[in-house]
């Protein structure tokens, strides 16, 4: 069955790094990005970086969060390892804040919702705190980008793993593999998740939500720049040798699901 699916998808194609950017043009919103759905949140047609942008002028919160909507699959979700996602980022602006936006680093969080998007109490996540602080009023638009070491088989340095009280208990390496091979939603925290802050009134916005998939395509198993029978044969050989490269779904075992994962990556192209 797997062989039939792969043979049907044979093609020869070159590929290059691909960055998808959601700039909210024409009121588009791939992934359902939001800033907390506070009163007045809207996509504005002017004033962005440039043009359209997502804006919330009346956000009363301790932690500003820019997030995709759980349960909505998009180009910002999926198997980051098989799709070779290497970076994710955004542009952000702070128009006003009650007290202070000082010394708050931007961070990114990737979530596995445990197949229950309506129940956040069983989610697992990994996050990375960036080296650049959130924008302060008067600083204008600021750009942020986070590298995603999707090929790491354990929790990479600089990343932190965690899970909620109803999630399956796992060690940090297992959480990383589970999340990176099945990202269900993405959050940019305007804050270090390990710290608490006071509630303030914010006027903030975001633009140019971006995700980059590198040219090193997982499905091109031979690395020759083409998708053909030889990639499938190379995958089978790696699978039979219990090579970690063939653990496509990242669960630490070699099963039919790795074949299905590879087939989906192959059919998706590069």
Query: What about the largest sheet?
Result: 6 strands, antiparallel
The helix content, as a percent range, equals 10-25%
Mean pLDDT: 89
Number of strands: 11
Question: Rough shape?
Answer: globular
Beginning-to-end CA distance, first to last residue: 22 Å
CATH topology of the largest domain, anyone?
Answer: Jelly Rolls
What is the class of the largest domain in the CATH system?
A: Mainly Beta
Cα-based radius of gyration, to the nearest Å = 20 Å
By secondary-structure content and strand pairing, the structural class works out as alpha+beta
Structure described in brief:
The chain is α+β, with helices and mostly antiparallel strands. It has helices at 2-8, 172-180, 229-240, 256-268; strands at 18-22, 42-48, 51-61, 65-67, 85-97, 105-112, 124-133, 142-147, 159-163, 185-189, 200-213.
Can you put this structure into words, describing what you see?
- The chain has helices at 2-8, 172-180, 229-240, 256-268, and strands at residues 18-22, 42-48, 51-61, 65-67, 85-97, 105-112, 124-133, 142-147, 159-163, 185-189, 200-213.
- The relative contact order is 0.23.
- Strand 2 and strand 3 (51-61) form a beta hairpin.
- The chain has 270 residues and is an alpha+beta fold.
- It folds into two domains: 2-10 and 219-268, no CATH class; 18-213, Sandwich (Jelly Rolls).
- Residues 1-15 have low confidence and may be disordered.
- The strands form two sheets. Strands 1, 2, 3, 5, 8 and 11 form a six-stranded antiparallel beta sheet that branches. The protein has a five-stranded antiparallel beta sheet with strand order 4-10-6-7-9.
């Amino acid at each position: 069955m797997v062989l039939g699916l792969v043979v049907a998808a044979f093609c020869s194609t070159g590929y290059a790094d691909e960055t998808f950017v959601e700039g909210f043009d024409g009121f588009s919103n791939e992934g359902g990005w939001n800033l907390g759905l506070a009163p007045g949140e809207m996509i504005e047609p002017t004033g962005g970086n440039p043009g359209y942008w997502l804006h919330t002028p009346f956000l009363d919160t301790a932690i500003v969060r820019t997030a995709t909507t759980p349960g909505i699959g998009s180009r910002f979700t999926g198997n980051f390892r098989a799709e070779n996602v290497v970076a994710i980022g955004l542009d952000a602006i702070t128009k006003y804040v009650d007290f202070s936006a000082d010394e708050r680093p931007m961070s990114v969080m990737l979530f596995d919702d445990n197949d229950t998007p309506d129940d956040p109490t069983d989610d697992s996540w990994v996050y990375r705190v960036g080296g650049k602080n959130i924008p302060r009023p008067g600083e204008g638009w600021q750009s942020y980008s986070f590298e995603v070491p999707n090929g790491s088989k354990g929790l990479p340095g600089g990343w932190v793993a965690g899970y909620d009280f109803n999630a399956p208990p796992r060690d940090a390496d297992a959480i990383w593999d589970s999340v990176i091979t099945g990202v269900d939603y993405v959050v940019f925290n305007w804050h270090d998740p390990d710290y608490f802050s006071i509630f303030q009134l914010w006027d903030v916005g975001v633009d140019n939500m971006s995700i980059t998939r590198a040219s090193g395509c997982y499905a091109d198993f031979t690395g020759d720049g083409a998708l053909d029978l030889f990639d499938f044969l190379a995958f089978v050989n790696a699978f039979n040798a219990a090579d970690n490269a063939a653990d496509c779904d990242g669960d630490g075992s070699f099963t039919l699901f790795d074949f299905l994962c590879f087939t989906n990556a192959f059919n998706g192209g590069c």
